[in-house]
Design a protein that fits this description.
The complex is a heterodimer of chains A (415) and B (397). Chain A has 17 helices and 4 strands. Chain A is mainly alpha-helical and 415 residues long. In chain A, a hairpin with a 3-residue loop joins strand 3 and strand 4 (258-261). In chain A, helix 8 packs antiparallel against helix 13 (308-330). The longest helix of chain A is centred in the N-terminal third of the chain and has 32 residues, at 98-129. In chain B, strand 9 and strand 10 form a beta hairpin. The two termini of chain B are 23 Å apart. Chain B is 65% helix and 9% strand. In chain B, the strands form 4 sheets. In chain B, strands 2-3-1-4 form a 4-stranded antiparallel beta sheet. A two-stranded antiparallel ribbon of chain B has the order 5-8. The chains are: A mainly alpha (415), B alpha+beta (397). At the A-B interface, helix 9, helix 14 and helix 17 of A face helix 7, helix 13 and helix 15 of B.
Chain lengths: 415, 397
């Protein structure tokens, strides 16, 4: 039997039993008058993990689904896929080289943190305004361009990269605030029929406008900013035996196996700092508490003296700013085009649906998951040129599975 | 509605159709304007079917161009890889087909010097073997079917959920389709694109006039008639139960379901129908243009269609179609550059910026679009007043 076919048949087996579990289980639970909200997800996971040997006892006993069991079954699925993969491609780097896998994993987490930052902005907007901003990717793009322009301009190029980031934050914040006041505030007045659809279209219009504005001003050829900071060259514990840490200007190696490029590392550190700052803002300041109050109950919040309109503006502007900042820190990693925001926005959509629309921890966890899946997918799939091109496809698979099995996402509220 | 008003709207429609049918008499000399007109009809089909989906049905899909591309690529793949031969090649994958052989070529990728299995088999085949490309209209048909299949799949997956999910999913779907088509170089030739035969590879003879395969007149009429056909079809749908049902779903899903409308079924049906219309437009346009690349899936294209529908008038397919035709011509006419003091403004890029701004302002201040109110002004003058007046009378009683 052809080796590669092993993986194909295994995946087919998983999908078939997952589908049977996902379709039949809710029916059985419904017939017994049990809660079916988790049944598609639970049935699919257990079906894929154990096949008929798991499904038949499940259908006979019909227990409540506990998180612990589902996570364990999920691990079994991952184990089966990994095992089949190692049998199918015994010479693949992901099978033979443990340090490569660790390195990929670390890189996935690093890039995932930055994805999280962007998705947090989107989920913040959704939790307050109840709409998804389709211009999110364009704020990301603008953040990157602001940093690029400042880093190449005469008067700002000698300043600290932090000033560039601040510039990107201010520009995207102000743009977001202006847009909210002029175009989205009207949603609350009742003058607009079907406000959600209006918001979808008008943010889409904004994304169109901003993309072409960027193209008209910056041109259509790709640009890339220089990296913000060089690492100090270090070797720990000693230069002869740097088993713990070794850095060059452009990259960092931990334990001799995990290699992370400088630009990604600094972007991730920036993202962590910004995440902490965002948490501090949301939980320790009056404005942040106001935001959370509005997201929980608009009427009650306005009774308590919070102006929901101002909170809308603040939320949209902050969401735009978070997207801008993640673009600003990633412009040193990727080359930048006016269209660069589109895949980034699509990825953010995947993340917030996976995490649950409007959930902040969900967006964070979803970002990490998508980051790891994308990196592993790109690193492990046998045909590397094709694997890179398929990068958005991994997110799509996650999105489809989420919509099929648990549309509310990991931490979602009821729809 | 009184009879007089009906005459006005029918008369205007008939006048418009006659003008479009007779237009080639004046513009046939200019291939450029003919090309613009064909492209305008193409966009009019897309914009009006999108307005049926979004304006009437309330389902905001950003995947319309993806369905268009599915139709176009199906037709292109069919045209590139399927041949009919009188003799078996013994090298290719082939299926017996009414006494002949349906030959499926192997993909050779982007290389220029590569030989397909058919090229390799040709020298060994007996003389007199006829190898033909099957009629392109089958490819168009397959494109429509594929568009419908994908429409059912995606509709069934997403339309159970809130409208936001549909928008999110379709935008991601169209991105992914672009990635897949760009990546599968072997089959789709990626960015270099697939070439298609013209609509009438051997020319066409009509009423004694013979048109060559490069003449723009046959494609003009094909696209125009197809455009008129889809408009009539959609108008028929809207006028009947179907239109009533989808509008009730748009206004209030729960209320519609309570009144006996099978909400998900009608949403999926609407989604599939509009996907098939988009796919067929894509297949025909791809044959007319002669080449298809993944760039038709750029979000710009979708933005254009949405802008046309919105600026024309989202809640009327006629307004959306007229909007599309006007905007397509306007965008071409705006390809000029001029100077403001020391700066040269190149309108080829700036026109789209203004266009985006116009889209946002239209949404904000003219929810019915810019064309729709004009149509209403001509066709239903006095109707609105009449209705309001009746309501006032009733409240006084």
């Amino acid at each position: 039997m052809d080796n590669a076919a092993i993986l194909g048949w295994t995946l087919l087996w998983l999908v078939v039993w997952g589908a049977i579990g996902g379709i039949v289980t809710p029916r059985i639970y419904a017939r017994k008058d049990l809660d079916i909200s988790d049944a598609p997800l639970g049935g699919a996971i257990i079906g894929a993990a154990f096949g008929p040997f798991g499904l038949i006892p499940l259908w006979i006993v019909t227990p409540g689904f506990s998180m612990r069991w589902l996570v364990a079954a999920g691990m079994v699925i991952l184990g089966i896929i990994a095992f089949a993969f190692s049998k199918a491609y015994p010479t693949n780097l992901c099978v033979t080289d443990g340090s490569y896998v660790t390195s990929q994993l670390a890189n996935g987490l690093v890039i995932g943190i930055i994805y999280s930052l962007m998705a947090l902005g989107l989920t913040l907007i959704f939790s307050i305004l109840g709409v998804v901003s389709f211009a999110h990717g364009e704020f990301y793009m603008i953040g990157g361009y602001v940093v690029y322009v400042m880093s190449t301009s005469v008067f700002a190029q000698d300043m600290s990269p932090l000033v560039w980031l601040l510039g990107a934050a201010v520009v995207t914040f102000v743009l977001g605030a202006i847009f909210e006041v002029f175009f989205l505030r009207v949603m609350g007045t009742g003058k607009i029929e079907r406000p959600v659809e209006y918001a979808i279209l008008v943010t889409f219009g904004l994304s169109f406008f901003l993309q072409y504005l960027a193209q008209a001003i910056m041109g259509a050829s790709p640009v890339k900013a220089t990296r913000f900071w060089d690492f100090p060259v270090m070797a720990l514990p000693s230069a002869e035996n740097p088993w713990f840490l070794k850095t060059t200007k452009g990259s960092l190696t931990l334990f001799e196996v995990i290699r992370i490029p400088n630009a990604r590392f600094t972007s991730a550190i920036l993202a962590v700092i910004l995440l902490l700052a965002l948490m501090w803002f949301l939980y320790r300041t009056w404005q942040g508490r106001g935001l959370r109050a509005v997201s929980q109950d608009r009427q009650a919040a306005s009774v308590a003296g919070i102006n929901p309109n101002n909170m809308n503006t603040l939320a949209f502007a902050m969401g735009a700013m978070l997207a801008g900042l993640s673009g600003a820190s990633l412009v040193q990693v990727f080359s930048w085009l006016p269209q660069v925001g589109v895949p980034a926005a699509a990825r953010s959509f995947v993340i917030i649906v996976l995490g649950g629309m409007g959930s902040l921890p969900g967006a964070f966890l979803g970002g990490l998951i998508v980051g790891v899946v994308e990196t592993m997918g790109t690193g492990c799939v046998p045909d590397p040129s094709r694997a890179a091109a398929y990068m958005p496809a991994y997110g799509m698979i996650i999105l489809t599975l989420t919509l099929l099995l648990k549309p509310t996402g990991l931490f979602g509220r009821e729809l | 509605m009184s009879g007089r008003i009906n005459y006005v709207s029918w008369g205007l429609a008939a006048l418009g159709i006659i003008l479009l049918l007779l237009a080639p008499l004046r513009i046939a000399d200019s291939p450029y304007i003919m090309h613009l007109a064909i492209t305008a009809f193409f966009y009019a089909i897309l914009a009006s079917s999108w307005s049926l989906l979004a304006g009437y049905g309330g389902q905001f899909s950003f995947g319309h161009m993806a369905f268009m591309a599915i139709g176009a690529y199906t037709a292109a793949l069919y045209g590139t890889y399927v041949r009919i031969s009188t003799v078996a090649t013994e090298l290719c994958r082939e299926i017996p087909f009414f006494g002949r052989w349906l030959v499926i070529l192997n993909p050779i990728g982007v290389t220029q010097d590569g030989q397909t299995c058919l090229d390799l088999a040709k020298p060994t085949m007996p003389p007199g073997t006829v190898i033909v490309q099957p009629s392109i209209w089958w490819g168009v048909l397959f494109g429509i079917i594929m568009g419908g299949l994908f429409g059912i799949l995606i509709g069934a997956l997403v339309l159970r959920l809130r409208s936001t999910y549909l928008a999110l999913f379709t935008i991601a779907f169209s991105e992914i389709l672009r990635a897949v088509i760009s990546a599968e170089l072997n089959i789709t030739r990626g960015q270099s694109g697939l070439e298609l035969p013209p609509l009438f590879p051997n020319g066409v003879t009509f009423f004694g006039y013979t048109f060559s395969s490069t003449s723009k007149i046959p494609p003009y009429y094909v696209m125009l008639l197809f455009f008129l056909f889809t408009m009539a079809f959609m108008a028929w749908l809207i006028a009947g139960r179907f239109g009533l049902f989808i509008r009730s779903i748009r206004e209030d899903e729960e209320a519609a379901a309570a009144l006996g409308v099978h909400v998900v079924r009608y949403k999926v049906l609407l989604f599939t129908i509009t996907a098939m219309i988009a796919a067929s437009a894509g297949a025909i346009q791809a044959h007319y243009i002669g080449i298809i690349t993944p760039n038709i899936l750029l979000i710009l294209q979708m933005s254009l269609v949405i802008s046309m529908a919105v600026i024309g008038g989202l809640e009327s397919i006629v307004a959306a179609a007229i909007g599309a035709i006007i905007i397509e011509f306007a965008l071409e006419l705006l390809r000029v550059s001029f100077d403001i003091g020391p700066f040269t403004v190149d309108m080829t890029t700036w026109r789209l910026v203004f266009f985006g701004l116009l889209l946002m302002l239209t949404l904000r201040f003219f929810r019915n679009g810019l064309i729709h109110p004009i149509i209403l002004y001509f066709t239903r003058r006095g109707v609105a007043d009449e209705t309001v007046a009746k309501r006032n009378v009733k409240s006084e009683m």
